[in-house]
Amino acid sequence: MANLFQTLTNTVKHWYIPLIFGILFLICGFYVFSVPLATYVTLSIFFSVSFLFSGITEIFFSIQNCKSLQGWGWFLVSGLLTTAIGVYLIAYPQISMSILPFVVGFTLLFRSFQLLGFAFDLKSMRIMSWGNVALASVGGIIFSLLLIFNPIFTGISLVTLTGVSFIFMGIASIMLALDLRKVKKIPGKVSQELRDRIKSIQDEIDHVKK
């Protein structure tokens, strides 16, 4: 109930930031397919810049929406983690191919779980397309796990799993952004009188809980 009140009375800020994430990770995914295994390690530089940029912008997004989104803390944690991974990859650009898939895999796995959590938040907000975000997130989780826990890869499967993981996460982020855009429009359709009444009801509920 509180989540519904929050949706009706607050406006999501910078909904397009997850869209930028999605496009960025789609680019990463398709770019991975164009890189031969012999130069796979050089991707750490590309990943480091991508993770660093997405991490910093995600931290900004979470702070801006701390009063609008119930799960803003997950964005903050994800932003801090992704930024840390980006810094790590910049500090160690020659990271071995045996380690890089684990670093990338765990990062994508966490972000996929994060997006899955937001899919259920969208469900509680009565956004009908939440299932699309959930399905894309599950796809990201599956391929991230394959990337992490299967130590025996041929050259093609290593590149494929990395690329597909990025693509699924990119799709989920884009879908989340489009759904957040729908959430952003909801308060504009609610009259100020109704907002005040909703706020009054919420205050009464909070008072009873105390």
Shape: globular
Portion in helices? over 70%
Strand content: under 5%
Which class best fits the helix and strand makeup?
mainly alpha
User: How would you characterize the largest beta sheet?
Assistant: none
Distance between the termini: 17 Å
Number of helices: 8
Outline the low-pLDDT stretches. 1-9
Q: What does the average pLDDT come to? A: 75
GO cellular component, one term: plasma membrane
Transmembrane segments: 15-34, 40-61, 73-93, 99-120, 127-149, 155-178
Protein name: Acid-resistance membrane protein
Keywords: Membrane, Transmembrane, Transmembrane helix
Give a brief rundown of this model:
By secondary structure, this protein is mostly helical. The protein has eight helices and no strands.
Topology:
Blueprint: H1 2-9, H2 16-33, H3 43-64, H4 72-91, H5 100-124, H6 130-149, H7 155-185, H8 192-209
Transmembrane segments: 15-34, 40-61, 73-93, 99-120, 127-149, 155-178
Organism: Chryseobacterium jejuense
InterPro entries: Acid_resist_chaperone_HdeD (IPR052712), DUF308_memb (IPR005325)
